[in-house]
Design goal:
The complex is a heterodimer of chains A (479) and B (186). Helices cover 70% and strands 0% of the residues of chain A. By secondary structure, chain A is mainly alpha-helical. Chain A has a single domain, classed as Formate dehydrogenase/DMSO reductase fold (Up-down Bundle). The radius of gyration of chain A is 25 Å and the shape is globular. Chain B folds into 2 domains: 111 residues, no CATH class; 68 residues, no CATH class. The two termini of chain B are 19 Å apart. The longest helix of chain B has 27 residues. Chain B is elongated. Chain B is built from 5 helices and 5 strands. The chains are: A mainly alpha (479), B alpha+beta (186). At the A-B interface, α2, α6, α8 and α16 of A face α1, β3, α2, α3 and α4 of B.
């Protein structure tokens, strides 16, 4: 009898034990070798093919932007009343994707979620590249791009200053601060790993390049002390920052008087949507990278599982926001607001609205089931739906709210031109080309942080074993 | 005893390797208790509790960052109030331009506070660590390349008032350290 109880207790303790963050009992040097060697071997054939394709696609975007600037914004499909369409849709889409990286690196750091260590580097890189793609659109949509310096608060001979009370100027500050702080945070995290690459470098060029980039890092504890403080502070600063960026983006809409935009729900709704779309993009990129480089022991199925749960949570928040927007439009009793929402669901853009609902609200619900969270192919498919859905969300918000103006005589549809389409498609090329360069040149997993979550990294490892072994602790309590 | 670097130049430290993080932690406690002040332990990752084991105080980087943040906030306040309310008020849709419009200035105040704090955190950390620098005597020791992979080292600097080749060596041997080496400059 006592034995049976003991056995069931042990079995329960075994089930409750946390899965290790790095599987297969890998050693520190295995982690170093496995991550660093990706940048040291000569580039595989698939890399060259992928890089050629994505950089060619990037050139298409560059060409379209050149055409736009040399000819004028008329080459886009914008017209009255739809004065913002794909440009701002793409901007909000890309800037939203950036949010997952900062969430993983900052908020999960502050909440002591140690599983973030093997995904934060690539997610942060993805943030930077997404913000690069995002930054293109507001810059070129101003029309006369050579006047874009008017956005900067510098004294000029016209005696006109920026309107600091305008959300569009807040956005300039928010996005540029976000990009700068993300770069600082990312680089600070990279320094010890650059030192690893420096110490492993065999040829002169790598010794020089990584030697400069590592800034002379030695790994002494007197350095780690300041380093950890800096990292903690940067995480603490990035947390409100990441929440503020998409809030400020949403102010671009919410502070206007356009029905469908003028709502107080926008900031939290945009932030949740950004995290939702960002995590989907992280998985879209990490799952192929994990398969190609055999990183299953570092990015385990548990990591994927946890990210799927975040997608489920944020996707449900987004679904709630859609419902609440509709409810308030009805409950608020404003005829214009009511019309804007009914028109979204049943008007000429009904297909975009229902595509958004299906992709963002319905498909993530599959993640309630462990089966879907544990099967990579399903995860990938759902993430693809989410990627598409989040683009549709921004399209729906922007275009459906604008195409029915207050004056019915100015009602009109929006039709994208080939320049609209290829500029957007090309930004995927920019994004992927930058990401491919990143995985060739920099360690895509944070080597030193992953080592720090190994059991042997604990200075008390091997001394008071029973503190770390729930099974043994239960056994100890039984007699 | 092994020698690294150029023995003609100045002695930097006596250094040794220990097998793992746990050994490094206990070594640090012993070196601290032996009364050394100019020394360091090197590891591939920050070790939890090592500051305590070494007897180090909290980093004062946070104070620098606070100053940086206040500077950012002040710059943003002046940048917005001076042109928008005093020197070049811009009337949009007949709305007021006085000091009571301050809520509209909050987002940029917030952003610049964060921006300058982040700059101070990153560059302040580098400055406190004496980085970037081109070279360091520890890099003359070939074995030290392991520090960024899986090596754990302890180094007692020659400028430490308690530094004494015999006594320090005996202490390092007592810690169970391997590869005791005199590290010289270039």
């Amino acid at each position: 009898m006592a034995d049976a109880i003991m056995q069931s207790r042990e079995a329960a303790a075994e089930r409750l034990k946390r899965a290790p963050l790095v599987t297969s009992n890998r050693t520190m040097s295995w982690i170093t070798d496995h991550v660093a060697s990706v940048t040291e071997k000569s580039a595989p054939k698939w890399w060259w093919i992928a890089f050629t394709l994505s950089s060619s696609l990037a050139m298409v975007s560059v060409f379209c932007i050149g055409y736009l600037i040399s000819t004028g914004v008329g080459v886009w499909g914008l017209n009255h009343p739809v004065g913002w369409a794909w440009d701002i849709t793409n901007f909000v889409f890309w800037i939203g994707i950036g949010h997952a990286g900062t969430l993983i690196s900052a908020i999960l750091f502050l909440t002591r979620q140690k599983w973030r260590t093997s995904i934060n580097r690539a997610a942060e890189a993805m943030t930077l590249f997404a913000v690069v793609c995002a930054g293109i659109f507001p810059a070129v949509h101003v029309g006369r791009i050579w006047m874009v310096w008017f956005l900067a608060p510098v004294p000029n001979s016209n005696a006109i200053w920026q309107n600091f009370r305008s959300p569009l100027l807040w956005d300039v500050f928010a996005v540029s601060t976000y990009f700068t702080v993300s770069v600082l945070f990312w680089y600070t995290g990279l320094v010890p790993d650059l030192a690893t690459l420096r110490d492993r470098a065999t040829n002169k060029f790598r010794k020089f390049f990584y030697g400069i980039a590592a800034l002379g890092w030695r790994g002494g504890n007197r350095q780690w002390k300041h380093y950890e403080m800096a990292y903690l502070i940067l995480a603490g600063l990035s947390t409100p920052l990441v929440l503020s960026v998409h809030s400020v983006v949403s102010f671009d809409f919410a502070t206007s008087v356009i029905p469908g935009w003028h709502t107080t729900i926008f900031p939290p709704y945009f932030v949740a949507g950004a995290i939702f779309g960002g995590f989907a993009m992280v998985l879209t990129i990490m799952l192929p990278a994990r398969a190609i480089f055999g990183l299953h022991d570092l990015i385990t199925d548990d990591h994927v599982d946890k990210m799927c749960k975040i997608i489920l949570l944020t996707g449900s928040i987004v679904g709630y926001a859609y419902a609440m927007e509709f409810f308030i439009a009805w409950y608020g009793g404003n005829a214009f607001e009511q019309y804007a929402f009914i028109n979204r669901a049943t008007g000429p853009y009904w297909w975009a609205y229902w595509a958004m609902i299906f992709c963002n609200v319905v498909t993530p619900q599959l993640f309630w089931f462990r089966f879907f969270r544990r099967h990579v192919l399903w995860v990938f498919v759902v993430c693809m739906f989410v990627n598409a859905g989040m683009w549709f969300e921004r399209f729906v918000i922007i275009v459906t709210s604008l195409h029915r103006d207050f004056l019915p005589s100015s009602w009109n549809m929006f039709y994208p031109t080939w320049v609209d389409i290829w500029t957007f498609v090309g930004t995927f090329g920019i994004f992927l080309a930058l990401f491919l360069l990143f995985i060739r040149w920099l360690p895509m997993i944070c080597i030193f942080e992953v080592k720090a979550v190994l059991p042997e990294a604990d200075p008390h490892h091997g001394h008071d074993e029973h503190h770390h072994e729930p099974a043994a602790a239960v056994k100890g309590g039984a007699h | 005893m092994q020698i690294a670097g150029n023995p003609q130049s100045q002695l930097f430290a006596m250094a040794a390797e220990v097998p793992n993080a746990s050994a490094l932690y206990h070594a640090a406690e012993k070196v601290r208790d032996a009364g050394y002040t100019r020394w360091d332990v090197y590891s591939p990752f920050p070790i939890h509790g090592m500051d305590h084991a070494m007897g180090l105080k909290k980093s004062w980087l946070s104070a620098l960052v606070f100053i940086g943040g206040i500077t950012g906030l002040t710059i943003a306040a002046i940048l917005q109030f001076y042109p928008s309310s005093i020197e070049y008020p811009l009337v949009v849709a007949g709305k007021p331009t006085n000091f009571f419009t301050v809520p509209a200035f909050f987002p940029i105040m917030f952003e610049l506070t964060i921006l300058l704090s982040a700059f101070t955190a990153t560059f302040g950390m580098l400055a406190l660590n004496g980085l970037p620098r081109w070279n360091h005597p520890m890099f003359n020791w070939d074995l030290f390349k392991k520090v960024s992979n899986d090596g754990f080292f302890v180094a007692i600097e020659s400028t430490d008032p308690k530094f004494d080749e015999e006594a320090t060596r005996a202490m390092l041997e007592g810690l169970g350290a391997d590869h005791i080496t005199l590290v010289y400059g270039d």
